Amino acid sequence: MRGVVEVVAKPKVVLGVSGGIAAYKACELLRRFTESGHDVRVVPTDSALHFVGEATWSALSGNPVSTEVWESVHEVPHVRIGQAADLVVVAPATADMLAKAAHGLADDLLTNTLLTARCPVVFAPAMHTEMWEHPATQENVATLRRRGAVVVEPAVGRLTGADTGKGRLPDPGEIFEVCRRVLARGATAPDLAGRHVVVSAGGTREPLDPVRYLGNRSSGKQGYALARAAAARGARVTLVEANTGLPDPAGVDVVHVGTAVQLREAVLKAVADADAVVMAAAVADFRPAVYAPGKIKKKGDDGAPVVELVRNPDILAELSADRALPGQVVVGFAAETDDVLANGREKLARKGCDLLVVNEVGERKTFGSEENEAVVLAADGAETPVPYGPKEALAETVWDLVLPRLRPTD
């Protein structure tokens, strides 16, 4: 008896491309979608075709490319493309495209598709800094987010010509990660839309001399997973990272720091208007009392020098005790090597945070891994175990627990 082969439908993605110099980067985004098993229909604007031709989009996607409402009218493409999509992503999204989408204009196939789509929609803006910061663009972005679209923050970097600033299209690989998470959530609304969250990641380094430091094994991957998950759920995300070496996540404002004191300064500044802060960074408890301006030398047989340590500020306890806004949710992490839950409960009470993610760490556990296992302890006594699995699964659980604790929006 012959077996039945089950045919699994590929997720249908519409890749909208508007007319900006960053259009060429959308080719890499398209490649990532097709190679991961998505059925992609590219819908460029007429302006986009000045940068990348129709033949390129068709060859890379394996699907026909249309720009006009009046092409193939028997198929009603301006209705059918949006209706059939599981995800619509516009990358790059110019200021003009954001304005049209926010105001419901429909003068070409892409804007018609946006109006007919009932699936999640992601915009990846790219434009000059002045255009991004203009009040009209910011109001359009706010309108789109309020309606449920995910508008990722543009990256900071080199723009056209000699200009540098915020407005650069995020790395296509990072845009893909946002889209993958949005697709996984399906029709679920971006439940962190309109919220600002702060996440810390990585491990601080406390200088001893110009070539040595006290540090830890934290890779920052859990913090980055938290930042990416929040961005995919519609939040405005500030990521304070310490010494990770990881690429900036798409749609996230990244602040790079080195030491515990620098991390404290950056976090306290960022949380001034934040709804929640998640302290996933491994912050050094101590730092050398004296920084040697020159490399410390071995001197004969005098033995090793004695390094005096002083305590670093307790950032998590400070955030919990002096919240920047009423109802601000504070989440901490506790990396333990023994008596994990007992030490975690004691730390939760001592730090005063709302949630504490407790996990067992070691040389071959958690640090640097793509997986994690934890128990999330709550100040009200609840305990949520998260089984061993990808760090993004733990990240989603943390935001699921943060969400009902957020103060109501106006």
From TrEMBL:
Keyword Magnesium assigned: yes
EC assignment: 4.1.1.36, 6.3.2.5
Keywords tagged on the record: Decarboxylase, Flavoprotein, FMN, Ligase, Lyase, Magnesium, Metal-binding, Multifunctional enzyme
Any one GO MF annotation of this record: phosphopantothenoylcysteine decarboxylase activity
Phosphopantothenate--cysteine ligase as annotated region, ranges: 197-410
Binding of CTP, residues: 285, 295, 313-316, 333, 347, 351
Family: In the C-terminal section; belongs to the PPC synthetase family. In the N-terminal section; belongs to the HFCD (homo-oligomeric flavin containing Cys decarboxylase) superfamily.
Lineage: Bacteria, Bacillati, Actinomycetota, Actinomycetes, Kitasatosporales
4Fe-4S as UniProt keyword: no
Protein name: Coenzyme A biosynthesis bifunctional protein CoaBC
Cofactor binding description: Binds 1 FMN per subunit.
Renumbered residue ranges of the record's region Phosphopantothenoylcysteine decarboxylase: 1-196
Catalyzed chemical reaction(s): N-[(R)-4-phosphopantothenoyl]-L-cysteine + H(+) = (R)-4'-phosphopantetheine + CO2; (R)-4'-phosphopantothenate + L-cysteine + CTP = N-[(R)-4-phosphopantothenoyl]-L-cysteine + CMP + diphosphate + H(+)
DNA/pantothenate metabolism flavoprotein C-terminal domain residues: 192-402
Names of the cofactor(s): FMN; Mg(2+)
Domain of life: Bacteria
Pfam families in UniProt: DFP, Flavoprotein
Residue ranges of every copy of the Flavoprotein domain listed in the record: 12-179
Biological function: Catalyzes two steps in the biosynthesis of coenzyme A. In the first step cysteine is conjugated to 4'-phosphopantothenate to form 4-phosphopantothenoylcysteine, in the latter compound is decarboxylated to form 4'-phosphopantotheine. Catalyzes two sequential steps in the biosynthesis of coenzyme A. In the first step cysteine is conjugated to 4'-phosphopantothenate to form 4-phosphopantothenoylcysteine. In the second step the latter compound is decarboxylated to form 4'-phosphopantotheine.
Pathway: Cofactor biosynthesis; coenzyme A biosynthesis; CoA from (R)-pantothenate: step 2/5; Cofactor biosynthesis; coenzyme A biosynthesis; CoA from (R)-pantothenate: step 3/5
